[in-house]
Amino acid sequence: MALLHKTLSSYKKLSAFILWVFTSNKHRLAQSRLILYVYHRYIVSLYKRAPNTNTRTDPSTVNRHNKGFTLVELIVTVCVLVIIVMIVAPVIRTQLARMEAKRIQSQLENSLALAKAESYIRRQNVIVCLSDTGGRCHRDSDKTLLLFIDKNDNNHFDAQVDSLVVQQSLNPKYSKLSLRVGSRRHYTKFWGDSGKPRGHFGHIKYCPIVAYNEAMYLISFNQGGIVKQKLNEDHPTECDE
């Protein structure tokens, strides 16, 4: 019976988690209520079969009448769990995509604000670019975000020469990123004399690559160095082009 009690305890925790996921996605409530009702009735039936641990019983009677799950109960349990997984999996994927969109938004905004501050404090130009693992700046790379002082003026990060300010790991799974600056540059520059991206203003575009990721926005930086998120509803991202 210890196995039965452990299983029931696990079901209680699983039920609480499933309820939270369903209630956080209102568009699925109608379907969710039906599944939760069936699942609840099944758990109640299992509880009725469980003995009261506060009451002393004859061990021989317990062993004779409670020998764990029957084959039917096992099949029903597996079926219920499969149904739950089928319903919850898309919801979890959507939630993970939303979390990624918020994470990358925060990383981009904070890094651009830092580039503005560091360039003015150090009185040195700070390069910001999207990069691959080799440190090469490219407008359509999305592995990492680099902030560095380009000492040899080649607009790429050279670990042996340049001074790294910040390296942010992006690695999006549900989207792609693109840097768009004038003259099709692969970088933007915050000038040390003012801390502003004079002549290098533009935006970084966040575009979804999976159907269940609905986030679509720009992180823009203007001539004054003001960093701002612009949603697709107000400023079309042109992700489809």
Describe the model.
This protein is an alpha+beta fold and 241 residues long. The protein has two domains: 2-68, no CATH class; 100-231, minor pseudopilin epsh fold (3-Layer(bab) Sandwich). The chain is 42% helix and 19% strand. The strands form two sheets. It has a four-stranded antiparallel beta sheet with strand order 3-2-1-5, with helices on one face. The model is unreliable at 1-8 (pLDDT under 50).
Write the layout of secondary structure elements.
Elements: H1 2-23, H2 29-49, H3 59-65, H4 71-122, E1 126-131, E2 144-149, E3 163-169, E4 175-181, E5 188-190, E6 202-208, E7 217-221, E8 227-231
Antiparallel strand pairs: 1-2, 1-5, 2-3, 4-6, 6-7, 7-8
Helix pairs in contact: 1-2
Named CATH architecture of the largest domain:
3-Layer(bab) Sandwich
Beta-strand proportion:
15-25%
Structural class: alpha+beta
- Radius of gyration from CA coordinates: 28 Å
Strand order of the largest sheet: 3-2-1-5
How many helical elements? 4
Question: What profile does the largest beta sheet have?
Answer: 4 strands, antiparallel
What number of domains?
2
Name of the top-level CATH class of the largest domain: Alpha Beta
> Mind telling me the CATH superfamily name of the largest domain?
minor pseudopilin epsh domain
Shape: elongated
Give the end-to-end Cα distance, rounded to a whole number of Å.
61 Å
Tell me the total number of β-strands.
Answer: 8
Mean pLDDT: 81
